[in-house]
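lol ok so funny story. i was supposed to be doing the assay writeup but got distracted and ended up predicting the structure for this chain instead. priorities right. anyway since i did it might as well share w the group, maybe its usefull for someone
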Amino acid sequence: MKGFKVKKDPYEVSNEAIRGYLYHLANDKELSTSTLNTAINALKFYYGEVLKRRFVYEIKRPKKDKKLPVVLSQAEVSRMISSVSNIKHRAILMLVYSAGLRVSEVVTVKLEDIDTERKLIHIKGAKGRKDRYTMLSDVAMETLREYQEKYKPGNWLFMGIKPEKHISTRTVQAIFEQACEKTGIKKRVSVHSLRHSFATHLLESGVDLRYIQELLGHKSSKTTEIYTHVSNKDIGKIKSPLDSLFEK
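and the output, tada:
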């Protein structure tokens, strides 16, 4: 019968056939690394745990996609933050961008972590259970004072619906998305993009990569070096040959 495919007994499927299937997913269908890893895990479970066959474990996992972070320009950040009228929401976005915070860090900041005298924020139990200090900008500090006067936060700097709980990361993401939509930003960005933008803008302003690494709390300098690939510090100085052709 035309179009009819006979299903092969799983015990008869060879190692080469599985490798060919994964090659098809990676090269013909151009699936992402995460999707390929999901397929590999499913094969490992089925053939290893269900069928008790061991050869599938020999499959070499594909390397993680090396994607560059999407960065907002300073003008885009300024427009986005300025579009937010709610003082609490504006304070959250300001703190994320001005200090390079992860969304999980900004939601768990406590009043006691804000050092207005030294202009520092104490980030406790960050990624890798590592504490660090990062900067507290003057503009963000003034906005925080306005916010505190209006909302009178308790233990958590940014309270959730229930005062005893902090705001959720999902809510912060929604605040960011609404601000981007209102400002007309079309880039595929998330709250984390503000952290990427913070690092990139510091690098473009001439701040040493080692200091940026400390502010971000990166364990390895190689993690921070990714921002050299998205910064226009040096690339922006290069003149396009097209501009030279039509130069007045």
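Confidence is low (pLDDT under 50) at residues 1-6. The two ends are 71 Å apart (CA to CA).
back to the writeup now i swear
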